[in-house]
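Aim 2 progress update. The chain analyzed this quarter is reproduced below.
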Amino acid sequence: DVQLQASGGGLVQAGGSLRLSCAVSGFTVDDYTIGWFRQAPGKEREGVSCISNSIGNTYYADSVKGRFTISSDNAKNTAYLQMDSLKPEDTAVYYCAAVLELSPGIPVLAAQALGTMAPYDYWGQGTQVTVSS
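Predicted structure tokens:
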């Protein structure tokens, strides 16, 4: 049974930090790209960042570049999103998702080229991040 469990959200003041975790069960992440998405009320879902677990390349949306860091621990089957210098506009429900890499690193390379992350095979439930001003 495939499951992605996102956790680590909460309420933080502007300028603060949070670390989100995405624990994966039901498959090993070695051949997958893990992505983080977010959706704020009334807005479309936005791809935030992704990491290839096969070759380690990464992608960041311009809105979070330099503030967020994605990482993955294949031994723990878990991915992380370290969020620093948080802004009120980062407030959203954050989701993690996984996509099988048909060729190593391809989903990240595609995101880097297109500036968008899609599509993903498996999704977790969201975790709320609220940044107060």
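Residues 52 and 106 are 8 Å apart (CA to CA). Residues 106-114 form the longest helix (9 residues). These observations will guide the mutagenesis experiments scheduled for the next reporting period.
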